[in-house]
Amino acid sequence: MLATATSTSAMQGGFKDVPTEAARQFRAIMNAIARPGRIETLDGATPPAPMSVAAGVMVLTLCDPDTGLHLAGDHDTPNIRAWVQFHTGAPIVPAEDADFAIGRWDALAPLTTYAIGTPEYPDRSATLIVEMDALSSTGAILTGPGIKDTARLSLPETDAFLRNALLFPLGLDFFFCADTRLASLPRTTKVTKGGAS
Amino acid sequence: MNDYNFAYLDEQTKRMIRRAILKGLAIPGYQVPFASREMPMPFGWGTGGVQVSAATLTPEDVFKVIDQGADDTTNAVSIRKFFQATAGVDTTEETDKATVIQTRHRIPEAALNEDQILVYQVPIPEPLRFLEPRETETRKMHSLEEYGLMHVKLYEDIARHGAIATAYAYPVKVEGRYVMDPSPIPKFDNPKMTMPAIQLFGAGREQRIYALPPYTEVVSLDFEDYPFEASKADHSCELCGADDSYLDEVIVDDQGGRIFVCSDTAYCASRQTALQDAAAAQHEEISA
């Protein structure tokens, strides 16, 4: 059923009851960005492969005709385009115009392409949704707003996030997705390399 | 309840507000513009807070509303009933049972925890507005971190009154970057703003949303020789005896009689109940 859903119909795999499910999923997304490094669980969406459940929920909860969505690398497929189009109506745009961008870490590069906001409007910046194979509370050490002492998160690298944090109050905000799991790293979070935990 | 979409607002509006909340949390203290909607209540009655609550509430939430600390004032009762009707959420007056608390001009006395969200109603979100009326200018001042004017204002307070006379809406600096209006809470509440709960601020008429993630550093502006002081009336609560809570002065007769009582009604009620229970237990012990 799941395998055919992707190819036969873009109309499947959305929220069953949009207002209440979007509310619950948004709470988890908000908790993730308010507490960088904390891993939340999302559900309710079954997007076409290779998009993860968590990334699909992000799209359904936050994207609509007002937000440009960039599909990077292997996420730019006819099936995903059709699914996004049907469920959200979000225009698919190049990286430099994106409010949201989804893809694997390598495919999203270079990060300098994305909008980082302006000094007067730092909120006019892109949110990157990074697809990961796995997500765990290990590796890089995180400090900053939303974190009581320190947190840890298995980031794809650290240098890019160090550079991003230096741009504050400008910068990009990141969400990391692996299957149903979601974690976030806003521009305020300071990242230091951590050994094995 | 089915006559309304969940939590009153349409989905596209809620998505727009939710995106603003996320950017607000990513840039603590920065005012994110949003397309504020007409609500079935006038601007100035908490439409910003109501829109943020509408975008935040889930069906499982327990909702509490306070107005100047009180659960039983017109504004608080109306907003509570509004979300009871449109979102079907449970409501409470007890701070520790609530998951989302909408507030006008107070932070509850009881410490909030990680699973709670505090939504502030904000009349004027721009802390520099009364010093510089032009939005184009204040926006530039924030972008250049040009906050000297605010310190001049506080200095003029000292020059005129001998102390910083600003008693509410006392400006704070967030994570060493943005100067933020904490909404017209008494400065007594300012030190509580570094807390485990998420704090969201909504200004409906002014169309701004801003936010503080948990444990964000919030510092009240001051001078080395005139440090910030969280002040309250120098009394105890007449009803529950609390000497650590923020007090309202209430006139009780036409002879000029006045008493001080807790502004946080839920805190006061819980203390009164505890005192009565203790008295009853003592009475039983004596008579046994």
Structure description:
The complex is a heterodimer of chains A (197) and B (288). With 197 residues, chain A is α/β, with parallel strands linked by helices. In chain A, 51% of the residues are buried. Chain A has 6 helices and 9 strands. Chain A starts with a helix and ends in a 5-residue tail after the last strand. Chain A has a single domain, classed as Bacterial phosphonate metabolism protein PhnH (Rossmann fold, 3-Layer(aba) Sandwich), CATH 3.40.50.11310. Chain B is an alpha/beta fold. Chains A and B meet through helix 2 of A and helix 1, strand 1 and helix 4 of B.
The count of strands of chain B amounts to 12
Largest interface: A-B, 40 and 45 residues
Average of per-residue pLDDT values of chain A: 94
The structural class of chain A is alpha/beta
Question: What's the CATH C level of chain A?
Answer: Alpha Beta
Class based on secondary structure composition and strand pairing of chain B: alpha/beta
N-to-C CA distance of chain B: 53 Å
Number of strands of chain A: 9
Write the H/E string of chain A, N to C.
HHEHEHEHEEEHEEE
Note the overall shape of chain B.
globular
The fraction of residues assigned to DSSP E strands of chain A is: 15-25%
Give the assembly state of these chains: heterodimer
Q: Tell me about the biggest sheet of chain B?
A: 7 strands, mixed
User: What helical percentage do the residues of chain A reach?
Assistant: 25-40%
State Rg of chain A.
16 Å
What is CATH's topology name of chain A?
Answer: Rossmann fold
What's the number of structural domains of chain A? 1
**Which regions of chain B contain 5 or more consecutive residues with pLDDT less than 50?**
none
Outline the biggest β-sheet of chain A: 6 strands, mixed
| Overall pLDDT score of chain B | 96
How many H/I helices of chain A? 6
